[in-house]
Amino acid sequence: MSFRLAAYAVCLAGGRVLLARHVSAHGESNWTLPGGRVEHGEDPFDAVKREVAEETGCDAVVERLLGVDSRIIPAAERTMPGGPEHQNVGIFYQARIAGGRLRPEPNGEIAESVWTPLPDVACLRRSSLVDIGLALAQTRPATGHVAAVPVGGLIQH
To answer: Cα Rg for the chain, rounded, in angstroms?
Structure first.
């Protein structure tokens, strides 16, 4: 089994959420939260700010820890055929944008970042991370954990 520790930003303002459009090497795209891998020796708190800056061009200020999500992606459902099952542990932070200008990620997989009205999110092809992050931000569970989001239809791994 492969493993990844990642940090994600849930940026909400005026009834909108900041989403990033990820484009795979195969040309498929889906919407996700800004964020990504925590590098070896890096604090997840610092990683989420770095990832927001790299992917969106904006400076994020972390306001609070929202929670943690752990999910297993079966080998048969991975986008890269032939790989083992994969565990992703995501740390979700509430953050606000304090500066910068939205732009595509230079030499990266994020084609654009946009402020998306919350009611429009349900109509987007998106990562389950979006739904997890929004559930954590909207319910703020004391445990820092929400139920798993079923994958299928518009919701992807």
So the answer is: 15
103-153 pLDDT, tens digit per residue, is 999 999 999 999 999 999 999 999 999 999 999 999 999 999 999 999 999
Tokens of 12: 């909400």
| Domains recognised in the chain with CATH numbers | 2-142 (3.90.79.10)
Q: How many angstroms from the chain centroid is the CA of residue 138?
A: 16
56, two tokens = 């969106």
CA angle in degrees (0–180, nearest 5) for 54-22-69: 85
Q: How far apart are CA 57 and CA 97, in angstroms?
A: 10
Return d(Cα 112, Cα 106) in angstroms, integer: 10
Nearest to 89 by CA among 3, 11, 10: 3
Question: Which pTM value belongs to this model?
Answer: 0.95
